[in-house]
UniProtKB/TrEMBL annotation:
One family name in Pfam for this protein: PDDEXK_1
Presence of keyword Lipid biosynthesis: no
Gene3D superfamilies: 3.90.320.10
InterPro entries: PDDEXK-like_dom_sf, PDDEXK_AddAB-type, Restrct_endonuc-II-like
Assigned keywords, A-Z: ATP-binding, DNA damage, DNA repair, Exonuclease, Helicase, Hydrolase, Nuclease, Nucleotide-binding
Protein's UniProt name: RecB family exonuclease
Domain of life of the source: Bacteria
Molecular function via GO: exonuclease activity; helicase activity
UniProt keyword annotation of Glycoprotein present: no
Positions of the UniProt region annotated as Disordered: 1-37
Coiled coil: none
One annotated GO biological process: DNA repair
Amino acid sequence: METSTEGAAADGGGSAPVTAPVADEYPAGAGGAAAGGEAAEPAAAPARARASLSPSRASDFMQCPLLYRFRVIDRLPEKPSAAATKGTLVHAVLERLFDAPAAERTAPRAKSLIPGQWDRLRESRPEVVELFADDPEGERLAAWLGEAEQLVERWFGLEDPTRLEPAERELFVEAELESGLRLRGIIDRVDVAPTGEVRIVDYKTGKAPRPEYAEGALFQMKFYALVVWRLKGVVPRRLQLVYLGSGDVLTYDPLLADLERVERKLLALWEAIRQATETGEWRPRPTKLCGWCDHRAHCPEFGGTPPPYPLPLRAAEGDAAGAVPR
């Protein structure tokens, strides 16, 4: 699970990821801080920086390089989103449901987990309380929790949890490519058939994308499939996106050639990120998704000014003394 969005910026339509950056997503040699809440890495010690990339951050850069900078390098704060928080809540409920014996995995039981998971979410992420700060009577919160219940209930019409025994849930995966780039992320669910075939499943609380956006929706899944292949030497048999917002299931059976293409794409993407990191040239790419961006006040496209660049810039060609170590 990397993101969960709804509405016009819904999951499959090229939405802006909303989770915090995964740690250590600076190109090797860039220096600076590790993202994702870890302690900042001093700019004077660039040799310790690691090259790693998650699906969300890859999507950020493809959507808008400046968004990647704001999230990963500047680490600008973002307000909690009601849609994204709802997605986090629903994911937690579906994960916890599999703690119960198969016969007890019913819709009423799943819905009964929502209040407790909401309490846990507020404890682990106190900032989400801000979403309902202006709701003293709790009416909006009740409606929001009701929407979460509807999403959970809809899942039972798409999959039968009494017949599923996931091999993994919320599985953190990480693999290092020959180039040294590490790919990492969290897979919602991994199913393994008795014959050994692997299915990767991801829950989306938004609506299924239109056909022209299907390839973009599958990018995250192919990313995960690539990591699994590099880790286990096994190409997943099926990639499955479960869209709770619209009640659709999108599946794709990848081939080895698909994963090799994704790997080449990610290597090229990382080289572009490295170049931008060294030069400080992070160009905005305006799209309809700008309306959901928290950083318009800092974006030149909206008359804003980015914060001072916190990393050392590559010196002019031939000036080796100022070059960023690699």
